[in-house]
């Protein structure tokens, strides 16, 4: 496996499409905060600091993207792209993809990855958490009226 790190605003249309398709494969990844559009929006909103929003792209030996991890890197610390206000995070990947976190850190040029709302079943990062707690979401997949009643 190879890990490429690119600025969120430099994400190619092909990578954006692949990321979106990987997200669609797993209902647990169905969140706008795990999308390529979110990473790009955060980078755009950061203006002069938008270059800190990066995406680690894990590729197989043929160059096919297997996973995406959007982060913001500052002073050797990688954190969710939208942290601290929106820090929902997961490795958006094919099923059962695990990556050595040390390789991720090295590729990101970071000494640590801070996270607090990682999906509990994330193969790569969840086992490195210090604790676990429920996190609430609002399911409006059937429309707001169905949710409200």
Question: Can you walk me through this structure?
Answer:
There is one protein chain. With 149 residues, the protein is of the alpha/beta class. The protein has one domain (2-128): Aminopeptidase. 24% of the residues lie in helices and 23% in strands. The protein is built from four helices and eight strands. The strands form two sheets. Strands 1, 2, 3, 4, 6 and 7 form a six-stranded mixed beta sheet that branches. Strand 2 and strand 3 (65-74) form a beta hairpin. It is globular, with a radius of gyration of 15 Å. It starts with a strand and ends with a helix. The mean pLDDT is 86.
Explain briefly what this protein structure is:
Helices cover 24% and strands 23% of the residues. By secondary structure, the chain is an alpha/beta fold.
State which percent range the strand residues make up.
Answer: 15-25%
* Total beta-strand segments: 8
Give me the number of helical elements: 4
Would you state the CATH class?
Alpha Beta
Question: Structural class, from helix and strand content?
Answer: alpha/beta
Helix content bin = 10-25%
> What general outline do the C-alpha atoms trace?
globular
The secondary-structure element order is EHHEEEEEHEEH
Compute the average pLDDT. Answer: 86
Low-pLDDT stretches:
none
């Amino acid at each position: 496996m190879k890990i490429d790190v690119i600025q969120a605003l430099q994400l190619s249309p092909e990578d954006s499409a692949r990321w979106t398709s990987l997200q669609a494969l797993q209902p647990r990844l169905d969140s706008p905060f795990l999308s390529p559009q979110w990473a790009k929006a955060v980078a755009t909103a950061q203006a002069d600091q938008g270059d800190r929003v990066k995406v680690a792209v894990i590729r197989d030996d043929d160059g096919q993207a297997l996973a995406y991890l959007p982060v913001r890197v500052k002073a050797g610390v990688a954190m969710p792209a939208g942290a601290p206000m929106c820090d929902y995070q997961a490795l958006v990947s094919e099923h059962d993809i695990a990556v050595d976190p040390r390789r991720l850190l090295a590729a990101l040029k970071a000494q640590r990855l801070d996270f607090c709302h990682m999906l509990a079943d994330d193969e790569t990062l969840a086992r490195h958490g210090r604790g676990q707690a429920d996190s609430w979401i609002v399911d409006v997949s059937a429309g707001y009226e169905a949710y409200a009643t």
